[in-house]
Amino acid sequence: MPGNDEIRTIIVLDVRREAVDISTIYFKDELTQTAKPGQYLMVWVPGEDEVPMSISTINHNGLSSITVRNVGPTTEILDSLQPGTKLGIRGPYGNSYEIKGEKPLIVAGGSGAASLYPLVEAFIEKGIIPTFILGGRSSDQLLFEDELVDLLKEKLVISTDDGSMGYSGYASGYAALLMAENEYDHVYTCGPELMMAKVFYETEKHNLPIQASLERYIKCAVGLCGNCVVGPYRVCKDGPIFDTEMLDTIREELGVSRLDASGIKVRVNH
């Protein structure tokens, strides 16, 4: 079996349309099946760029998956793939969510649900059913809604920015309400960074530990190039999962600034 850092060829076996600009790509790969919740792959489109993608399915009947939102040239190609297409991948990379607590609250915004879905499965394997906020811009942007309903039943709650389904407003606002009304012992979040920053600040009010999956421009994935640096950390190696202490260390940058592809500091705008 090749090592994590070697590019491996995979064949797209199935593609599922999740939303207008989101699709899930299924494939077989032995190393991906050894991944832990929260880890990511570097995915290479021949002739195009290489991009980091969260693993949304680790091993379902021998299949793994990544879930892609169309946000640029490479992800536009990935979002339009057909079965039979060949891709290059390496990884899994990064740290993973630590399974902690008996009453966890999980907060997903948009495509952030992809990173959190394997975490839900890990909790259920331990006999723990977490409360899960599934947030999206509108009711047609709710990722894995049917699967999460099957797994979580009434513990799945919905928020939409436009109020078309569930709580009207951002997932971070709904999380603040639930933290005020319920006793949770751990919080997990993945989604737009401004949302995650608000969730982090809310956990501080309630003295709750948190784990958040950060996104930065990842190029090498092995900690060498420095493109993904935030504070003293390399997101590709030290992350992508940041715990309470790490988030506190980078609070001046969290939801504020990041490095772009050329290494220039720019504002976080979502």
Describe the structure.
The chain is of the alpha/beta class and about 270 residues long. The chain has two domains: about 10-95, Translation factors (Elongation Factor Tu (Ef-tu), domain 3), CATH 2.40.30.10; about 105-265, 3-Layer(aba) Sandwich (Rossmann fold). Helices cover about 20% and strands about 35% of the residues. The chain has a seven-stranded antiparallel β-sheet with strand order 1-7-4-5-6-3-2. It has a seven-stranded mixed β-sheet with strand order 11-10-9-8-12-13-16, with helices on both faces. A two-stranded antiparallel sheet has the order 14-15. The model has no long low-confidence stretch (mean pLDDT about 95).
Produce the secondary structure layout.
Elements: E1 8-11, E2 14-19, E3 22-27, E4 40-44, E5 50-60, E6 63-69, H1 73-78, E7 86-93, E8 104-109, H2 113-125, E9 131-136, H3 145-152, E10 156-160, E11 167-168, H4 171-181, E12 186-190, H5 193-205, E13 210-213, E14 229-230, E15 233-234, E16 241-243, H6 244-249, E17 257-259, E18 265-267
Parallel strand pairs: 8-9, 8-12, 9-10, 10-11, 12-13
Antiparallel strand pairs: 1-7, 2-3, 3-6, 4-5, 4-7, 5-6, 13-16, 14-15, 17-18
Helix pairs in contact: 4-5
